[in-house]
Amino acid sequence: MAAAHEGVAELIVDLLFDNGGISKVSLDAHTSKLLMDACAAEGPDDLIGQNWEKVRDALSQSYNRYI
């Protein structure tokens, strides 16, 4: 968790790659909820080991809510 604009909480997710690379992805509350639901996660620790595509899909769904 991290503080974003005006102190609003965001979830920071680390994507780990086979080559040792790491990407940090910041998720707002709406996107975090979508990801947690998709992973049937009760807390952030339940996201460990999940497929990165679930992060991608949550970001896409969150973005598309404005279309």
Structural class estimated from helices and strands: alpha+beta
User: In percent terms, what proportion of residues is strand?
Assistant: 15-25%
- The beta-strand count equals 3
Count the DSSP helices: 2
Distance between the termini: 28 Å
Summarize the biggest pleated sheet: 3 strands, antiparallel
The proportion of residues forming helix, as a percent range, comes to 25-40%
Strand order of the largest sheet: 1-2-3
Order of helices and strands: EEEHH
Number of domains: 1
- Overall residue-averaged pLDDT value: 92
Low-confidence stretches: none
Globally, the shape reads: globular
Question: From the alpha-carbon coordinates, what is the Rg to the nearest angstrom?
Answer: 12 Å
Give a quick set of tags describing it.
single chain, 67 residues, alpha+beta, 3 strands
What this model shows, in words?
By secondary structure, the chain is of the alpha+beta class. The chain has one domain. It has 2 helices and 3 strands, in the order βββαα. The protein has helices spanning 29-38, 52-64; strands at residues 2-3, 9-16, 22-27. The chain has a 3-stranded antiparallel beta sheet with strand order 1-2-3. Helix 1 (29-38) packs across helix 2. The model has no long low-confidence stretch (mean pLDDT 92).
Summarize the structure.
It contains two helices and three strands.
